Amino acid sequence: MSAPVFAEDGGKGIAKEDLKVGVIYIGDENEGYTAAHMKGIDEMEEKLGLDDSQIIEKTLIGEDEGCYDAAADLADQGCQIIFANSFGHETYILEAAGEYPEVQFCHATGTQAASSGLSNMHNYFTNIYEARYVSGVVAGLKLNEMIEDGTVKEDACKMGYVGAFPYAEVISGYTAFYLGAKSVCPSVTMEVKYTNSWASFDLEKECADALISDGCVLISQHADTTGAPTACEAAGVPCV
Predict the structure, then answer these.
(1) Apex CA 49: angle with CA 103 and CA 60, to 5°?
(2) How many C-beta neighbours within 10 Å does residue 127 have?
(3) Which run of H or E residues covers position 23?
(4) pTM as predicted
(5) Domain locations along the chain
(6) pLDDT band at residue 1 under the 50/70/90 scheme
(7) If you count DSSP H runs as helices and E runs as strands, how many of each does the chain have, helices first?
(8) Burial class (CB in 10 A: 0-12, 13-18, 19+), 188
(9) Which CATH fold topology does 4-124 show?
(10) In this structure, which topology does domain 128-235 adopt according to CATH?
(11) Do domains 4-124 and 128-235 have the same CATH topology?
């Protein structure tokens, strides 16, 4: 028998060949954020030497009761650990974690695991605001270049930001982006518009077009499609 690869709170391991992993995705392979998670799951499977039959993936699961249903179905199929990858999944994952205490639930980008009182509920994510700060520095350097070559005036360095939802993750991200830009371009200002969707090409393009019309000379985003960059390309506006 293989060595245990998974330990519950009691310390009892699960043999590798008995491990079953469930994954809940907001999107599918056609959407960059979810595609990155899928790649991670594939690498995990290879690294641990698991079989395809040990991974059950559910795509296009919305931030609604369907997420709870997906989690419950995965638990009922015997998954001992379940991942969910979108912020709005958290309420439903918490509900499932309360009803399936023997299953470990891991939720990306959330904030409530530590205060939930549930030993089988976990949040995971990178400190993504740090990367967004660095992206902001890049944007600020671009604005300085535009000031130097006369493309924009120093008092007209207005950035636009296409945000998905007014969630803490998005707000912390664009705040870090703005502070990064301001650290190298003190005169910068920023306007934010929300799409209220994680992935909508049309809405992201509309928001970027509106921001450009409002005088934004550089665009960034926290949304999952190429809608905003497409608008920037057509208007000749830098996109970071």
Answers:
(1) 55
(2) 10
(3) strand 21-24
(4) 0.78
(5) 4-124, 128-235
(6) very low
(7) 8, 10
(8) buried
(9) Rossmann fold (3.40.50)
(10) Rossmann fold (3.40.50)
(11) yes
